[in-house]
């Protein structure tokens, strides 16, 4: 008795699973590529946020310094006004 011959060639039986595997590999590669793009966008957004935070921190420090100077000037002004009032009262009392 001779061995049976299949109607579907052996090569076709192997090609079908390989084609499916190849398609799945391509899908996964596309998925990884998309994730990489999203990751890059997130990294860029993070870098921009860090830069903005740094700029705002610097501005806040400058604002704080200005506020402290304004407080100092306000205290000096009050002290000068009090001193002026004392001199005014002395002059008025002499007259």
Characterization of this structure:
This protein is mainly alpha-helical and 95 residues long. It is built from one helix and no strands. Keywords: Coiled coil.
Task: Write a concise keyword list for the protein shown above.
95 residues; mainly alpha; rod-shaped
Q: What's the Cα radius of gyration? A: 41 Å
Query: What form results from the Cα inertia axes?
Result: rod-shaped
Give the strand tally: 0
Alpha carbon gap, first and last residue: 146 Å
Q: Uncertain spans, ≥5 residues at pLDDT below 50?
A: none
The H-and-E topology, N to C, reads as H
Tell me about the biggest sheet?
none
SSE arrangement:
Blueprint: H1 10-94
How do you describe this structure in short?
The protein is 89% helix and 0% strand. With 95 residues, the chain is mainly alpha-helical. The chain starts with 9 loop residues before the first helix and ends with a helix.
């Amino acid at each position: 008795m001779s061995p049976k011959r299949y109607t579907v060639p052996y090569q076709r039986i192997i090609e079908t699973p390989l084609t499916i595997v190849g398609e799945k590999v391509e899908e996964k590669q596309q998925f990884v590529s998309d994730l990489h793009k999203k990751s890059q966008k997130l990294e860029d957004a993070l870098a921009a946020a860090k830069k903005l935070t740094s700029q705002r921190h610097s501005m806040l420090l400058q604002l704080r310094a200005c506020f402290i100077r304004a407080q100092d000037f306000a205290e000096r002004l009050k002290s000068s006004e009090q001193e002026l009032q004392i001199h005014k009262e002395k002059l008025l009392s002499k007259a």
